[in-house]
Amino acid sequence: MHAPDPAATNRGSGEDELSKRSVADLLKMMVNNSNLRHHVMKQMLQHERATDVYDTSFLDSLMTQIEQRNLLIERAVAQAEKNASKPSSQVTGNDIHPTPPRPLVQEISHDFFDDIEIEPPTKVSASSGSQTAHTSSPSASYPASTSTRQDHTASPYYSEIISNLKNTFKLSSFRTNQLEAITATLDGRDVFVLMPTGGGKSLCYQLPAICKTGKTQGVTIVITPLLALMTDQVMALKAKNIDAVSLSSGAFCGETTRDVESRLRRKGAPKPSLVYVTPERMQNSNSLLSLLDELNDSKQLARFVVDEAHVIQSWGRDFRDAYKELNVLRNKWPNVPIMALTATADETAIRDITTQLQLKDEVKLMQSFNRPNLSYTVRPKPNNKKQATHEIATFIKSRHPNSSGVVYCWSRNDCEEVASQLRDDFGLSAHYYHAGIDTATRPVIQSDWLSGKFKIVVATIAFGMGIDKPDVRFVIHHSLPKDMDGYYQETGRAGRDGLQSDCVLFFSNKDLMARSSMVQNDSEKSAEEKERQAAALRAVATYCSNEVECRRTMVLRHFGEKFDPANCHKQCDNCRKDGASVTQDLTAYAQRVIELHKQMSATGSMIATGTLKAVFKGRNIKAVREGGYQQLSLCGAGKDLDAAILDRLIEHMLHNTSILRIERVARGQWTQNYVELGDQADDCLKGRLQVCLAFRDEDIGSSNQSYSGSSIGRQRPAKAPASGSTRPRESVDANNSFNEDDLYDDNDGDPISDFEPIREAPDPQLMGTTSLSRVPSNASFAASRPAEHDNTDIDEELVQLRELRQKFAVQKGVNCEEIFEDFILDSMAAVRPKSIDELKGLLSTLCPNEEEALVKLDRYGKGFVRIFAHGSSDSLAGLKSTTPFHSSQLHRQYDYAP
């Protein structure tokens, strides 16, 4: 069937919807854009008559696509004209060796967006023996170029590369940095590729794997983290008649692992081009290691590829020890080139990856992280689960009816509950996906979603690795992401076709505390690793609580990229707000941070960022106690400052070099961040440099967002510290203790209640509460008050906790807060202690006075525990503490196998 010609004879009323300009654009797009052609043909097949594709709704959709592309072209032209008119005196180092820009629209293209050169030409930077190509947005900040970009069309491999591109992969052009990566690996170089989600990473190693030229030839070994990812890629390659195999448990496409190994060992037999393995098989299979030795000896081992390389840092530190052993690649086969690819890595992660893999003289290919078609929004998450799902459903129906999307949850139970409610209660086409689904069913669910059989997949965060669906219109985080890297990668699965897409994150303090508690009980984690994960989670917390700054700016800054908020074009909730902001001078707090750093560094120790914050807040945690920092006069100097505001303050001071972030390698393996005083510290102390932050003015203006929701928990401007004593209190309040931890990339396991409760409680201020002080402003409640809160939006167990507290208060004739404060009840609801011992452990970290905590435990403990014990006897004799959680539990829950 051929697509109808829009410029032919009259199609009826539909033709009136297309202007002459749009008709021409549509024709060009259908010729040059395979995604649009597929979309048009799909619409035709769903109608009885071809002309039905020109109904109003379809035309509206096409008009939107056309106009968005026209806008991108106009912006690119304007930028090009602006650069062309720049006076010679303004030419920067990056302009010394200009690269001729590609035409805005080429004659033939696989993807229309690839041919709209919105960003400056790719630049090459050489440093420390590494060749680095950066492609950045106009506002990005990267190292200046020191050499011109190489002409890869002159390489001896170019002819075969182009032939394979067109004949095997059915593509007509390369995306940014693909040709550079392919040429470098064929030349025998180590390559590090940082490419945004949807940028085409897999082609960088799949195409050279089938090339017969190149300094190294033979089999390409691909190490990948997930079995689902492995299966998808092998099947896709086989569909292109590429010989790809998987060395995983069980038979695959009629070929067992033994069959594959036999074929690889047989002399003279054709070898597969790509062999996919898990890191566990690399670590545990002597047979595989022996096989690789044989291939190497016969010069048939072309290269090693580490896909999703960011997991070397995030999982290698945690629960997949095999990732720490990948240095075997360089140690055993030093002359075999290595390619590492990821969509998500900041400077620290890049250093960890290249160090662990022992890359040498590597070519680094990196691009801007900006995804201009994605809109970022943070919304408060109702405590009531059904209400949270209701808000998600309302958003989908109002913004993206009949569109594809992903809703991310962190547990199996959440996935199944949310999917069921979206389907049964709201009539949305949704299905769940998690590692608990049997291996035969998972690919069926993936295929049904990819084909559009159902629209919404509710999944744990591992879903999406390597799955390429261009028309995902929304990504919703029902649960809090583990870190900003994960958030970026998960949101990056939206809008791969370049069209407008929404990324919505639902935040709640309860989620934050629950995620922290699950990791705090991991006995296998080192203090350094807990501190690293704490910092990662705090970064997400700061992002969520900041209701003033452009969210795109915050996301890109995390990866070391500068961005002008004016270029956001109201593509985030903060930039869409009409309300005015106010600037607050926090110089006095900044000065105290600097003075505190001087006191702490006088001991000769290096100061980690998290430790500096903890001492400034006066928290009673291990790092503070062991460092002897409780005795410092400035310990607790920032106790009255909201934790989220403190995070923003420290980030601001790092940004303007009052404090400079430095990096050191801890224990010879992983990079640990420390801080030292920067070159403007003295200027700040002497008052020559002001430190100011912007806050949303609650009394001026209002948001005009149609789906922004209410406040996330506003940060009120800080009050300057009193000019008297430098230490607010003599003692450190254990209530503020927070050993801030994080989860793994995919919990994908049991509900929160299956884990032991926290030993060091999360700080209720972490996400920016409505007060600078820990104690709520309405802390006093009358014992006889009939109801403390409106219970419509809080969980049933929290309702029961508050009702029980009120009963005790009436009996004792005291205020409710004298039984247990609100934040203690919130912690109970999050942790769900099922025994007296568990509640004792919780109270010991929440209550500043241990003796008082024991008295309260004796008086009220049994009643509160009974709420979570589900009908146990009054004696509670049968209750036992749950087994402490540690990372080995995830081995049998997670989606991989050796």
From TrEMBL:
Protein name: ATP-dependent DNA helicase
Catalytic activity: Couples ATP hydrolysis with the unwinding of duplex DNA by translocating in the 3'-5' direction; ATP + H2O = ADP + phosphate + H(+)
Organism lineage: Eukaryota, Fungi, Dikarya, Basidiomycota, Agaricomycotina
Annotated GO CC locations: chromosome; cytoplasm; nucleus
UniProt KW keywords: ATP-binding, DNA-binding, Helicase, Hydrolase, Isomerase, Nucleotide-binding, Nucleus
Organism: Coniophora puteana (strain RWD-64-598) (Brown rot fungus)
Positions with biased composition (Low complexity): 132-148, 702-713
One Pfam entry name: RQC
Subcellular compartments: Nucleus
Superkingdom of source: Eukaryota
EC number: 5.6.2.4
